[in-house]
């Protein structure tokens, strides 16, 4: 390569490095209840890719999904994460902040005092969807009545156009919240809330940490593969596939922790080891600090909520991806 070519390659590499640095840096959005909130820049890339699929369907469809997959979804996930954070404070756990990203939200939460307390923190997020559903339903009722002449709401998303746009938008608000509530609770695969509740329930019942970890792995792998298949069939859903990959990756990390006798450093189990709950169980591995910040996700004990499996799972138009 010539000197000029080498210089151009270096400049290109430097430009790519700067772009990568920008994308890797979260965007501060401010604070709520003294909790810092940030948005990962990659959210806009994934949003743009999703909206590309809706362009052939017309401007109203693009507008609908711009709102649904943008501010509506971000607001829904933010309230969910605030539920986790406020519950964590209630049980005495440290809260560092919230990160919104393409797969939903991450609540950075320190070690909880017990599996029972951790279960409450995990449950508090999905519970926020109940009042959100009621709000969107109250908004939908008069619009639905104006469209159909009936107060008996049948939940569906009509083709978005000027005459039905609010109907479509408010119906999406209801569907997203129902879907996130069900997906996070009924899919017991870590790092979803249902996976945390499964682990907390087993530990609370006295099951040894190592056995609990193996049960979690055996449950999460087929569920993750099932979500992956759903991401391809009957419609391609990019974010759902990404969520499945995240579930399988987190499960593989848990498997590595079991094989290395390092459960004490995994965020799901560090509280049990630090409190002595694993004593006498033949557990090995150095006791980790509260909310150990080790090789697992590179952050404190984290509550993760996927944005996948939402609207799409409830029968929204093909232009929409999911939601987790």
TrEMBL record:
- Regions annotated as coiled coil: none
Q: Please report the stretch or stretches of sequence annotated as the Peptidase M50 domain.
A: 72-203
Where is this protein localized, as stated in its record? Answer: Membrane
Give the stretches traversing the membrane: 33-52, 59-79, 91-109, 121-145, 165-192, 213-233, 239-255
InterPro entries assigned = Peptidase_M50
Keyword list, A-Z:
Hydrolase, Membrane, Metal-binding, Metalloprotease, Protease, Transmembrane, Transmembrane helix, Zinc
Cofactor section: Zn(2+)
Q: Which family does it belong to?
A: Belongs to the peptidase M50B family.
The name under which this protein is listed is Peptidase M50 domain-containing protein
């Amino acid at each position: 390569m010539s000197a000029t070519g080498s210089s151009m390659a270096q400049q290109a590499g430097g430009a790519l490095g700067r772009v990568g640095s920008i994308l890797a840096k979260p965007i501060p959005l401010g604070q709520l209840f003294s909790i810092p909130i940030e948005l990962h820049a990659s959210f806009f890339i994934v949003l743009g890719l999703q909206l590309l699929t809706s362009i052939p369907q017309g401007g109203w469809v693009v507008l609908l999904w711009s709102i649904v997959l943008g501010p509506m979804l971000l607001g829904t996930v933010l309230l969910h994460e605030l539920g986790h954070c406020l519950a964590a404070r209630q049980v005495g756990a440290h809260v560092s902040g919230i990160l919104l990203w393409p797969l939903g939200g991450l609540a950075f939460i320190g070690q909880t005092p017990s599996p029972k307390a951790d279960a409450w923190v995990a449950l508090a997020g999905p519970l926020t969807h109940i009042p959100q559903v009621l709000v969107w339903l109250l908004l939908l009722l008069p619009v639905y009545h104006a469209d159909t002449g009936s107060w008996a709401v049948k939940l569906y998303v009509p083709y978005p156009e000027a005459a039905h746009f609010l109907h479509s938008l408010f119906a999406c608000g209801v569907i997203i919240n129902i879907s996130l509530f069900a997906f996070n609770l009924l899919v017991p695969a870590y790092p979803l809330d249902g996976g945390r509740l499964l682990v907390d329930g087993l530990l609370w019942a006295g099951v040894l940490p190592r056995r609990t970890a193996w049960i979690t792995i055996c449950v999460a792998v087929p569920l993750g593969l099932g979500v992956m298949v759903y991401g391809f069939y009957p419609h391609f859903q990019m974010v759902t596939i990404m969520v499945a990959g995240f579930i399988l990756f987190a499960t593989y990390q848990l498997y590595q922790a079991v094989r290395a006798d390092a459960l004490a450093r995994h965020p799901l189990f560090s509280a049990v080891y630090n409190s002595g709950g694993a004593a006498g169980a033949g557990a090995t591995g150095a006791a980790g600090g509260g909310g150990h910040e080790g090789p697992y996700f590179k952050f404190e004990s984290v509550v993760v909520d996927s944005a996948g499996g939402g609207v799409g799972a409830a029968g929204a138009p093909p232009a929409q991806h999911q939601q987790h």
